[in-house]
Amino acid sequence: MATKKNTWPELPYDELKDTLYLLHHWSQIIGKVRLKKSPWQNHSWHVPLYVEVQGLTTTLIPYESGAFEIRMDFIHHEIRIKTTNGTQDRFPLAGQTVASFYQQLMEKLKFLGIEVKIHAIPNEIPDPIPFDKNKKVIQYQANAALKIWKSLVLISKEFNTFKSKFTGKHSPVHFFWGSFDLAYTRFSGRKAPKFEYEVPHIPLAVMQESYSHEVFSVGFWPGNASFPKPAFYAYIYPNLPDFKDEKLSPAEVYWSTDLGEFILEYEVIQKASNPQEQLQSFLQSAYEAAAKVANWDRESLDCDFTHLNQRNRS
Questions:
Q1: Which of 90, 110, 200, 277 is 20 to 30 A (C-alpha) from 103?
Q2: Element (H, E) at 18
Q3: 60, 67 contact by CB (below 8 A)
Q4: Are 134 and 99 in contact (CB under 8 A)?
Q5: Do the beta carbons of residue 210 and residue 237 sit within 8 Å?
Q6: What global pTM score does this model have?
Q7: Where in the chain are the domains?
Q8: CA distance 266 to 298
């Protein structure tokens, strides 16, 4: 009997880092357009991008003449802008610097009648270079972008499965372009101590609103220069000291003192005989540990729709 092929792509950081650099900056430019044109949502939920069938999307963004959408298409490797008026435009990802991408996107939006001016400084990036000044010549690798996107598709699917087991307030599964990670957050319903930590190039008031209530968060990021490994993470706010002493599954999970969160390196999941099962084990064990140390009311917050899922398949 043939074994099921593992479709989770390998993500060697050294091979992906140049394309990651470009995608991080480009996604920030797109995300800042959404931020500027959208009404504020609690916990900055008007900011992220979303994984979709061809790449990442803003979903609908309101503007004076209706709404528009910006897509980063990793099948055709281009940016697509469409409006509800039936107008659209596009340009390729290949051959772009950060500066040329910024210029092209702003010009295309203006051509489509979308007036927007963004704060042209990257967020959450050390020593940021203004978008219009960043003319570093870095090669966009289509295959690298495809691998990153395919991993996000698989992870998003598992995060949404995990999401279905919670009936309290929780976030969408969304992609934050500031930190360049796919994230999902659950809330206990109780207020949290005021957030007082600095995050590069993000106003403190924004962070305080984002962490106004107790949270448990999980996510995935593809690595950066200071942590050159793609990894899953789990943390709580407030970060209670007993959390780090909890035992999570699988055995390869470890606590990072520097990051203040549990880490499971992506390679562990990618090489597992059953990646989905291993990832669900991490997500559920992290949540159970968080709920235990923070004394969450799981009887009121948890849910199980297994019987409805089975009925839906019949």
A1: 200
A2: helix 13-37
A3: yes
A4: yes
A5: no
A6: 0.94
A7: 13-133, 151-301
A8: 28
Alpha helices in the chain (DSSP H): 13-37, 98-111, 142-163, 204-210, 266-270, 275-294, 298-301, 306-313
Nearest one of 70, 74, 76 to 57, comparing CA atoms: 70
Return the half-sphere exposure (C-beta side, CA atoms, 13 A cut-off) of residue 288: 10
How many Cα atoms sit within 13 Å of 131 on the Cβ side?
A: 25
Say which residue the tokens 């090669």 belong to: 139
Q: Alpha-carbon distance 249 to 283, whole Å?
A: 9
The contacts of residue 20 (CB under 8 Å, 6+ apart) are 13, 144, 148, 180, 222, 223, 224
- End-to-end Cα, the chain, rounded Å: 27
pLDDT band at 197 (very low <50, low <70, confident <90, very high): confident
**Tokens at residue 256, please?**
């990072």
In our burial notation (b when 16+ CB lie closer than 10 A, e otherwise), range 82-92 reads bbeeeeebebe
Give CA angle at 37 (223, 138), nearest 5°: 35
Q: Which two tokens stand for residue 15?
A: 């091979």
Could you report the per-residue pLDDT of 126-142, keeping only the tens digit for each? 899 999 999 999 999 99
In whole angstroms, give the CA distance from residue 82 to residue 34: 14
Q: Which residues contact 287 (CB under 8 A, 6 or more apart)?
A: 162, 186, 216, 218, 234
Pick the closest to residue 215 from 249, 241, 192, 183 (CA basis): 192
Residue 32, SS3 per DSSP: helix
What's the chain's average pLDDT?
95
pLDDT of residue 308: 72
The encoded tokens of residue 67 equal: 């709404």
Cα radius of gyration rounded to whole Å, the chain: 20
Distance CA(242)–CA(293), nearest Å, equals 6
Side-chain half-sphere exposure of 47, counting CA atoms within 13 A: 22
In the block, residue with structure tokens 């395919």: 150
* 3-class SS of residue 276: helix
Say how far apart CA 171 and CA 184 lie, in whole Å.
Answer: 6
Token output for 141: 């690798």
